Amino acid sequence: MAEVVLRDFGWRHAGRRSWAVRGVDLRIRHGERVLLLGPSGAGKSTLLAALAGLLPEDSGESEGTAEIDGLDPRKSREGVGLLFQDPQTQLVMARSGDDVAFGLENRGVPAGEIWPRVSDALDRVGFPYPITRRTGALSGGEQQRLALAGVLALRPGLLLLDEPTANLDPAGGDLVREAITRARDRDTTLILVEHRVEQALPLVDRVVVLAPGGGVAADGAPELVFAGHGPALANQGVWVPGFPLPRHRAVAPPADSLVRAEAVAVHRRLPRVSIDAHAGEALAVTGPNGAGKSTLALVLGGLLAPSSGRLTAFGDTRPPHRWRAAKLTQRIGSVFQNPEHQFVTSRVADELALGPRRLGRPAAEVRATVEDLLGRLRLTALADANPYTLSGGEARRLSVATALATAPRLLVLDEPTFGQDRGTWIDLVALLARLRDEGHGIVAVTHDDAFVASLADRVHDLPGSRRQ
Amino acid sequence: MTLALEPVADPTAPLARRNPVAKLGAALLFALPLIATLDPLTPALALAVELAVLPFFGVHYRVLARRAWPLALAAGGILVTMVLFAADRTGPLLVSLGPFAVTTGVVADALGLVLRVFAVALPGIIVFATTDPTDLADALVQNAKAPARFAIGALAAFRLIPMLTEEWQMLALARRARGIDAGRNPLAKLRLFASTAFALLVGALRRGGRLATAMDARGFDSGVPRTYARRQRFGPADTALLVAAALLAGAALTTSILTGFFHPILG
After folding, report:
1. Percentage of residues in chain B having pLDDT higher than 70
2. Residues A316, A321, A323, CA angle at the centre, nearest 5°?
3. Cα nearest neighbour of A353 on chain B
4. Distance between CA atoms of residues A461 and A455, nearest Å
5. pLDDT of B86 strictly over 80
6. Is B96 in a helix, a strand, or coil?
7. Which of A145, A419, A442, B251 is most solvent-facing, going by the fewest CB within 10 Å?
8. Contact predicate A95/B134, CB 8 Å
9. Strand partners, A10
């Protein structure tokens, strides 16, 4: 049981000029289940960290008060459980049961009570394996289920879930939502942060929307909140159910073939596949996890050599993976699933200048390219920022912009819309559609049905044969 | 050396079942005295003992050979170095390789060194091949009174190591995608390696930070005395293992002293 009361609450991280969250007045009663919404940067994650007591007093400046059952959250941490986004960095132990037991050991639960509570928590989330199952052998969705069990084993009165499905594919997300549904009970207060409102709604009975500048923009039963604020929320980038997405049909039929793969395969990672990418066409590569989609993207992007088969591209006698990197960037641009892998400088503008500079373009031309891309991808205000400090949406836009800086004719993207808010999603799809209509080829590996419906001219579905 | 992420031996073997701290202590007690001497007899005796107890740890000789092959490389390196650079070229000439006279003295020294490498490294290999990292951390905390923040923290970090290989590959590919490659220029190769390594380090630190936060969110920093879900016991058999290791090391040294082979590393 836990009641949360926030009075004009605010928090500013040390060294930052703006408040991460501010002016929040909120009362959440025992057993309520709340979906916390708001555009990127409205302070949702900071609010959860504050409630979990994870913001030490010396790490920033606070305003107003936050109380859980009348206590400072830092003093009521025993009653609060927090589930994060990334399952990889939440699991501590090598065996599943040990991982659930970890929190119980920390809290000094007597040894005799630990294992019954572990099996109880694993039952609650529907964990299907024995407790000796290696955590490293679990899929992302299963790992997140296990992490939830680790939190539930502590029997928190207040359960905080910070985008628990954002790092998972749709099947993994379903697993976790199902586990949350199973684990709900009337004694646990729940606060959930989640972009994908439609999937989250069955889990909650109240919606609270944080306003971008501070304060609470809307609060109440889901249908009332969306009836009153639906369009405004959608404009702010929240995935409000029932708002249609734009469709972008090609204006012209596909042109010449840019990259052709004939019976290419990568040992243990990609079964044999033949695929053709054309100029002026958006090709979506779909398929279940483990089908080798990301590997195929690396092969088509000229980054990984296929272990068999033939790859021809741009009329070159040599396959793309044998080209020098500078030549590759003029022909094929790759956008990775994790944007941070691609950042190599400490300034957004330098990131964009890097490619053209390495091609020996004159300084004035490099500057013009950088200005143009900053403007087109709404990054101008962030030109001097460190790429690693960007939000998810900003980092995604920057990673696409870096690939465009060297004007390649083919763009290969791995899960470009993963975890994006509605605003970034719409921008990104429109940008890719424009590039296609200008004659670029687009290949996107994706799980996102809406993305396929909105943009793809052709879909190549990789069969999901489970390989060793 | 291959990183032993999981034990590869039969866990029910009588000595494999011993407390991990006892096994680690026994390995140190047995191997450290060997460093005191340069003669070939002491390590040869030690090696004989190590190979003789191997079955009691449930380790197959074939598994050991797979684990220990980097040592063979080291041994080869020692042989070559000794043939080229040995100062002591006394004793009858065996082979003359151009300017390098391979005498019995050279061979004895080289053999002594090679045996030392094997004899000192083998106990460690046996311990890690027969010990689950979780059990080791548990035993360090419960029996050796190591701080849990250190032992469990290291264990959690250990779990992230296999991810680094994958991360490295992605970083290297992403650099190529950004137009950065080194071609045939060795200096550029070095620079590229350094920048990729730095990115790997930064990523590892960020990930480590996230893991630490998640651990604290589950009460790792609660200050409450921890309880133990898995009990590690240190019994008489574990004490016996430690004593036996010390006695055997002493016996090997005594034999070499009595037979006149002993050649102290100092003096």
Report:
1. 97
2. 55
3. B178
4. 16
5. no
6. strand
7. B251
8. yes
9. A63
User: Whole-angstrom Cα distance, residue B218 to residue A53?
Assistant: 11
Out of A242-256, A434-448, B102-116, give the one with best mean pLDDT.
A434-448
Q: At what angle do helices B41-53 and B20-31 cross, to 10 degrees?
A: 160
- Please name the residues between 273 and 332 in chain A that touch chain B, using a CB distance below 8 Å: 298, 301, 303-304, 324-326, 328-329
Query: With the C-alpha atoms ordered B159, B161, B162, B168, is the resulting torsion angle positive or negative?
Result: positive
At residue B127, the 3 state secondary structure works out as helix
Compute and round to an integer the Cα radius of gyration of chain A: 24
- Which helix (H) or strand (E) element contains residue B149? helix B148-177
3-state DSSP of chain A:
CCCEEEEEEEEEECCCCCCCEEEEEEEECCCCEEEEECCCCCCHHHHHHHHCCCCCHHHEEEEEEEEECCECHHHCHHHEEEECCCHHHCCCCCEHHHHHHHHHHHCCCCHHHHHHHHHHHHHHCCCCCCCCCEHHHCCHHHHHHHHHHHHHCCCCCEEEEECCCCCCCHHHHHHHHHHHHHHCCCCCEEEEECCEHHHHHHHCCEEEEECCCCCEEEEECHHHHHHHHHHHHHHCCCECCCCCCCCCCCCCCCCCEEEEEEEEEECCCEEEEEEEEECCCEEEEECCCCCCHHHHHHHHCCCCCCCEEEEEECCCCCCHHHCCHHHHHHHEEEECCCHHHHCCCCCHHHHHHHHHHHCCCCHHHHHHHHHHHHHHCCCHHHCCCCHHHCCHHHHHHHHHHHHHCCCCCEEEEECCCCCCCHHHHHHHHHHHHHHHHCCCEEEEECCCHHHHHHHCCEEEECCCCCCC
Residue A6 CB neighbours (<10 A): 22
Q: What are A198's two structure tokens?
A: 């439609």
pTM recorded for the entire structure: 0.85
Residues of chain A neighbouring B224 (CB-CB closer than 8 A):
106-108
CA torsion through residues A449, A455, A460, A462, sign = negative
pLDDT at A122: 95
Residues of chain A numbered 75-94 and touching chain B (CB < 8 Å)? 77-78, 81-82, 84, 86, 88-94
- pLDDT tens-digit profile of A162-172? 999 888 888 88
Binding-face residues of A in 333-352 toward B, CB within 8 A? 333-334, 336, 338, 340-342, 344
- B9, β-bridge pairs: none
Residue B117, amino acid? V
Q: Is B5 a residue whose pLDDT tops 80?
A: no
Nearest to A305 by CA among A257, A264, A276: A264
Residue B124 structure tokens: 């460690």
Q: What is the residue type of A165? A: T
Q: Given CB atoms, is A137 within the 8 Å cutoff of chain B? A: no
Distance from CA of B237 to the nearest CA of A (A): 25
φ, ψ of residue A105 to 5 degrees: the values are -60, -45
Nearest residue of chain A to residue B205 (CA atoms): A89
Give the residue among A304, A303, A252 at the shortest CA–CA distance from A278.
A252
Which of B160, B178, B230 is opposite residue A342, by nearest beta carbon?
B178
Cα A127 versus chain centre, distance: 24
Average pLDDT over residues A107-128: 94
> Which sign does the torsion angle of CA A461, A464, A468, B6 carry?
positive
